[in-house]
Design goal:
The longest helix is centred in the last third of the chain and has 34 residues. By secondary structure, the protein is mainly α. It has one domain. The relative contact order is 0.14. The protein contains 9 helices and no strands.
Length: about 190
């Protein structure tokens, strides 16, 4: 690879990383500015679960109550469908974080933290299992893990489907907790229609 090709490749990475970072920040700002509208999306059933889950999967800086929405909607809708739709939404949302890692490869590589090093080793040696398990459990490390997967060029399509599978299992479990837990509490309290 010639020097000009390396410069073009690096420039392309910076542009993609910058655009992905700008999109993430824009989503965070939009969430803050339009919070009332986002909260109303819960009332739109499966579409609301999808929209909230996309935002929850895409925003790192602003916490979105995706788990609470899935839990609540699981008590009033079909919990299996809520799990599938919200799993798809979170997987779609995580693509932005993946692309941020892909474009910000140099920045992520310069991090020398034990978690970063463990994630790099885990993805390199057990990539499919790592992505599936990290997306199937509740954990605060999924976002940096996703950026590292992008940095390592894990494979976007493979990442998406493994993430969707894991997020679907996690969200289906949360929706069924809402179905069996919240639904029974509401019945016990005597809320009409439950």
């Amino acid at each position: 690879m010639t020097i000009s090709e390396k410069a073009r490749s690096r420039r392309r990475e910076y542009i993609i990383g910058g655009l992905a970072l700008a999109l993430t920040v824009a989503l965070c700002v939009a969430v803050v500015l339009y919070w009332d509208y986002i909260r109303q999306a819960e009332h739109y059933g499966y579409l609301g679960a999808f929209v909230i889950s996309v935002l929850a999967g895409a925003t790192v800086l602003v916490p979105i109550p995706g788990i609470l929405v899935v839990f609540t909607l699981g008590s009033v809708l079909n919990p299996a469908l809520v799990g599938i739709v919200s799993g798809l939404g979170e997987a779609v949302g995580s693509i932005g974080i993946y692309i941020s890692g892909w474009g910000g490869q140099k920045a992520v590589q310069n991090l020398n933290h034990r978690f970063v090093n463990r994630f790099v080793d885990w993805i390199r040696h057990r990539g499919e299992i790592a992505v599936f398990l990290m997306s199937a459990i509740l954990n605060p490390f999924f976002y940096p893990f996703t950026a590292i997967a992008g940095m390592l060029r894990f494979g976007l399509v493979k990442f998406f489907f493994l993430c969707w599978g894991g997020k679907t299992i996690k969200n289906t479990a949360i929706a069924y907790l809402g179905y069996f837990g919240l639904r029974n509490i509401l019945r016990w309290v005597g809320v009409a229609g439950i």
